[in-house]
Amino acid sequence: MNTPSNTRLTGALKRESVKKNVAAIHVSGKLSLLQRKLSNVLLLNAYDTLTSQSSHRIDAQALCLMIGYNSNDVETLKTALRGLAETVAEWDMLDEAGRQEWGVSALLSYAKLKGGVCEYAYSPALAEKLHDPKVFALINLNIQRQFTGGHALALYENCFRFVKTGSTGWWDLDIFRRLMGVDGSDYYQSYKHLNAKVIKPAVAEINKVSDIIVEPETRKMGRAVSHIRFLIRRNPQLAILNIDDGEGVRASQTYARLMGLGVSDRLARQWIAEHGEDYVTEKIDYVAGQAQVRSPAKYLSRAINEDFVATEAPQTGGASTPEIKQRSAKLRRVQELVQSRSPTQRDADKRLFMSQLTEDAARLDFENHGWMSALNAEAIFAFWDELVPEDSTG
User: Fold this and answer.
1) Domain layout of the chain by residue ranges
2) What pLDDT does 138 receive?
3) What is the helix (H) or strand (E) element at residue 41, kind and residue range?
4) Which class would CATH give 1-138?
5) I need a labelling partner for 389 at 20 to 30 A (CA). Which of 65, 299, 380, 381 fits?
6) Are 1-138 and 141-244 the same fold in CATH?
7) Given CA atoms 144, 147, 149, 152 in this order, what sign does their dihedral have?
8) 382 near 394, Cβ under 8 Å?
9) Mind giving me the DSSP string for 175-222?
10) Range of lowest pLDDT (2-11, 18-27, 38-47)
11) CATH class of 141-244
């Protein structure tokens, strides 16, 4: 859960000329890394209907896969859900009229497992707060999966919503210890120990695996450190870290058609980025209109780079295109099925399919190209035919 302290709003969050303080939702207790990840996945799954539905449901196996533990380990899931139901969320903020509002709620009002489905709910008051983007920022699950330390993920969540303002603002050390879940430890009353065991490792992991860079600053009262804040900026190495899995481009029909022609993932994305979807689609249509093409991908490359139009470009001998068109249609249907799923389901689908791949080459190709993996095309078609039999890709 995001648990930032009071800060003044700027930019899009500024209400006319009135600057309002928005407080964090503080989570008491010591959430484990698993529970923290579980909390984020449950919230993402429920977010669109958070204030319109009283309860939410998610396939238990999909939930386990998304969190990254054995889907048959029901006891671990029960323990994690119990921990969330026993954890208290507390907020203290100004409402729209400028009045101070304090509230407290269990993180989950209830959770149950039945028939392979996890059903859960939030209290209405907490759901309202969680759904407010000024209060809570959804965490990218692609980034969340990179974390191996609970303190690092906790600090990331507390810093992420402040990326636009560039700083968390000053936190009293007692508040900070609470946010990190170490407030009950005498050992961490010493800033030296807190810095060595919590702050430095967490900062190092955030800066290594996430989309932001954080830098701690401290303020003293006398000779002792009394407050801490974190300066925040975007991580320029985000693309190198490959956290953005290209879902936006890969979801397009143009990309699917390029895959059907045998174009590589990297080249397909490069063409779309450089020339735009309309231009690339025009050239794909041109190539598809040729009666005989020996190497569609190679011929398309010429069509794009040399700007072939209908009255230009010689036709070349080779194989006919019906199979290519059929394959492209299947790939487009896969993309439509993928986009029809919720973000939570899409992530679970990927994990489930990946778990069925036994060869390293196949797994690597799927990691790099997702559902457009040429090496796994037939397995992908079979997977979706089984997953959504009433809407077969065959």
Assistant:
1) 1-138, 141-244, 245-391
2) 58
3) helix 33-46
4) mainly alpha
5) 65
6) yes
7) negative
8) no
9) HHHHHTT-TT-SGGGSHHHHIIIIIHHHHHHHHHHSSEEEEEEEEEET
10) 2-11
11) mainly alpha
